[in-house]
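TASK: fixed-backbone design
INPUT:
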C-alpha cells in the first residue's frame, strides 16, 4: 500500500483535533448556559436537562478519549507525567494564589478546611476524592481528572489495552453497587489528605526518577481507585464519571480499529467503505489482479481476504511464457498479416501447435504472393 503523504496525515490529525475542539466548545457553552440560567436568567433554565452536568460529562468524555493517546504517543509514563505536571500545575497554582490574594475582599469558601490538611489536599488535586473542598468551586473536576490519570498510567504499565469496552461497564456496575451499598463514604477525615499526599509524592518521585516505575504506577492506581470508591464526596457519582472517561477511551480504540468488539455500526461502515472503493470508476482495472479479483493493496487486509473468497484458490504457479518461434525473415516477407509479433507471450501448453499453424499459414501466403507477382511468360517461348 502506498503511504499517505505527510501533509495528508497532518491534515487528518488536524481534522480530528478540530472535531474534539468543537466538542469542547459545546461543553463550554452548556456550562456557561447553566450558570447564566441559574443566576442571571433563571426563567430560561431548562428543567428537562441539566446543562451543567451535560457539559462537564462532555469534557470528561473528551479527556478519556485523549489521555490514552497521549500516553501511547509519549511511550512511557515518565514523559506523560512531566507533560501533565507542566500543563496543569502552573495555572492551577496561579488560580489558588490569586484567590487567596483576593480573600480580604472575597472570602474563601466556608467549606475549605482551615488547617494544613487543605494544603495537602490541594497539593495532589485529589480534593473531591479525599472529601475536601477546593478554594474554587470548579476545582472538584480536577479530582476525577487526576484519578483517571493515575488509573490510566497504571493500566499502561501493566499492558492493559481495553479494546472491548469492559472497563466502563465494570465502573458503571461499581457505581450502581456503591450507590446501593452506602449513602455516605465509609472513609472520611483529614488523615486521608495526608496519606494520599505521602503516597502521591513518593509514587510520582519514583516515576520521575525512573526507579520502580511499574510498582509505583500500580500503587498510585490502586490508591486512586480506593479513594474513588471509599472516600470521595459522592462515591457512586465519582465512579460514574470515571466510567464515562473510560467510555471515551473505548471510543478512541474503536475509532482506530484497535477494539476486538467494535460496534456493529462501525463494522458496517468499514464494509461500505471498502465497497465504495471497489465501485469507483476505474477501480476494477486498477485494482484487478491476474485472476480477476481485487488487489489487496487497494483495500487493505480486508480486501485481500475478500479477493481470496471471491477468486477461490490460486494456481500453484503461473506458466512460463514462451516466445513464438516464427523466424523474423519469414515474418518480414509475409507482411503484417503473418501473425503476432515475436514479443507476444502465449501459454507454454499451446505455444507449439499455434506457432506451427501460424508458420504454415505464413508460408502459404508467401507462396501465393510470389506466384501472383511473377512476370508473365513470353509468347515466343
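OUTPUT:
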Amino acid at each position: 500500500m502506498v503511504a499517505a503523504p505527510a501533509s495528508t496525515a497532518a491534515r487528518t490529525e488536524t481534522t480530528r483535533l478540530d472535531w474534539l475542539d468543537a466538542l469542547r466548545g459545546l461543553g463550554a457553552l452548556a456550562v456557561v448556559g447553566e450558570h447564566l440560567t441559574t443566576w442571571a436568567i433563571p426563567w430560561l433554565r431548562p428543567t428537562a436537562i441539566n446543562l451543567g452536568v451535560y457539559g462537564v460529562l462532555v469534557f470528561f468524555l473528551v479527556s478519556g478519549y485523549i489521555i490514552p493517546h497521549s500516553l501511547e504517543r509519549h511511550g512511557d509514563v515518565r514523559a506523560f507525567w512531566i507533560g501533565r505536571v507542566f500543563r496543569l500545575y502552573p495555572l492551577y497554582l496561579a488560580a489558588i494564589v490569586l484567590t487567596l490574594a483576593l480573600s480580604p475582599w472575597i472570602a474563601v469558601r466556608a467549606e475549605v478546611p482551615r488547617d494544613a490538611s487543605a494544603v495537602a489536599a490541594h497539593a495532589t488535586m485529589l480534593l473531591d476524592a479525599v472529601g475536601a473542598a477546593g478554594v474554587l468551586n470548579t476545582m472538584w473536576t480536577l479530582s476525577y481528572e487526576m484519578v483517571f490519570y493515575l488509573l490510566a498510567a497504571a493500566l499502561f504499565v501493566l499492558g492493559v489495552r481495553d479494546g472491548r469496552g469492559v472497563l466502563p461497564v465494570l465502573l458503571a456496575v461499581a457505581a450502581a453497587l456503591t450507590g446501593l451499598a452506602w449513602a455516605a463514604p465509609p472513609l472520611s477525615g483529614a488523615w486521608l489528605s495526608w496519606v494520599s499526599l505521602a503516597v502521591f509524592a513518593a509514587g510520582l518521585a519514583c516515576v520521575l526518577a525512573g526507579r520502580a516505575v511499574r510498582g509505583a504506577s500500580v500503587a498510585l492506581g490502586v490508591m486512586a481507585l480506593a479513594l474513588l470508591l471509599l472516600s470521595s464526596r459522592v462515591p457512586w457519582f465519582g465512579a460514574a464519571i470515571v466510567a464515562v472517561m473510560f467510555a471515551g477511551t473505548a471510543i478512541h480504540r474503536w475509532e482506530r480499529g484497535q477494539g476486538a468488539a467494535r460496534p456493529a455500526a462501525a463494522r458496517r461502515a468499514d464494509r461500505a467503505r471498502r465497497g465504495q472503493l471497489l465501485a469507483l470508476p476505474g477501480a476494477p482495472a486498477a485494482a484487478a489482479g491476474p485472476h480477476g479479483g481485487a488487489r489487496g493493496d487497494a483495500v487493505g487486509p480486508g480486501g485481500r481476504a475478500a479477493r481470496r473468497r471471491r477468486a477461490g484458490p490460486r494456481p500453484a504457479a503461473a506458466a512460463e511464457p514462451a516466445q513464438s518461434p516464427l523466424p523474423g525473415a519469414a515474418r518480414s516477407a509475409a507482411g503484417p498479416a503473418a501473425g503476432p509479433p515475436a514479443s507476444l507471450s502465449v501459454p507454454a501448453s499451446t505455444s507449439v501447435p499455434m506457432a506451427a499453424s501460424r508458420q504454415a499459414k505464413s508460408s502459404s501466403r508467401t507462396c501465393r504472393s510470389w506466384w501472383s507477382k511473377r512476370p508473365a511468360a513470353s509468347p515466343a517461348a
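COMMENT: Confidence is low (pLDDT under 50) at residues 284-310, 314-352, 377-381.
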